[in-house]
Amino acid sequence: QIGGIGTVPVGRVETGIIKPGMIVTFAPANITTEVKSVEMHHESLEQASPGDNVGFNVKNVSVKELRRGYVASDSKNNPARGSQDFFAQVIVLNHPGQISNGYTPVLDCHTAHIACKFAEIKEKCDRRTGKTTEAEPKFIKSGDAATITLVPSKPLCVGAFSDFPPLGRFAVRDMRQTVAVGVIKSVNFKDPTAGKVTKAAEKAGKKK
């Protein structure tokens, strides 16, 4: 919150560009608004590119409506959405015990930290070739690679690694350490419920 200006989310541009006048949607909350200005190091930019750490001013959105881990994207071009569940290849690095269905550690994915349940361990596979070595294993342990369906405990925005690499990688944290890493193969997106569309977004939409 910046006095006299309003709400200024801060983040890194991962893919594409962001520029003033763009209508963006924040996922997974599905809030749509207009970008009024974009700045980096206190200088206004006409547009920002991947790798830029920027602040961007948005109209009619309060700080309370946004959270760390939300993803802003172009509302007109396949915007990011919250996920119902996702399918990933996971490699267990360092876990003292056995991991079975129902295990619910915290996932660090881009800037989000959200508990996700290992709903179904589908198959164990060879780390090098990717070939299945065991279907529906009872458990996996350190050194194993497996394909798993994960279900987030709270709204979470992720993507397939092949579409958006920054949204498609995660670390699995438990017992204060990284116990596994994963790459997302596919996402079962939530149907976007009618979210908030600000007056600024409606006005800008009419102008075009």
Describe the structure.
This protein is mainly beta. The chain folds into two domains: 10-80, Elongation Factor Tu (Ef-tu), domain 3; 83-189, Translation factors (Elongation Factor Tu (Ef-tu), domain 3), CATH 2.40.30.10. 4% of the residues lie in helices and 43% in strands. Strand 8 (106-109) and strand 9 (112-125) form a beta hairpin. The two termini are 29 Å apart. InterPro entries: EFTu-like_2, GTP-eEF1A_C, Transl_B-barrel_sf, Transl_elong_EF1A/Init_IF2_C. Pfam families: GTP-eEF1A_C (PF22594), GTP_EFTU_D2 (PF03144). One of its GO terms (molecular function) is translation elongation factor activity.
Number of helices: 1
Distance N terminus to C terminus? 29 Å
Structural class per helix/strand content?
mainly beta
In CATH terms, the superfamily of the largest domain is Translation factors
Radius of gyration: 19 Å
Please tell me the total number of domains: 2
> Quick one: overall form?
elongated
The CATH class of the largest domain is identified as Mainly Beta
CATH topology of the largest domain: Elongation Factor Tu (Ef-tu), domain 3
Spans of at least 5 consecutive residues with low confidence = none
Number of strands: 13
Largest sheet composition:
6 strands, antiparallel
Estimate the helix proportion, in percent: under 10%
In CATH, the architecture of the largest domain is Beta Barrel
Keywords: Cytoplasm, Elongation factor, GTP-binding, Nucleotide-binding, Phosphoprotein, Protein biosynthesis
GO molecular function, one term: GTP binding
Subcellular location: Cytoplasm
Family: Belongs to the TRAFAC class translation factor GTPase superfamily. Classic translation factor GTPase family. EF-Tu/EF-1A subfamily.
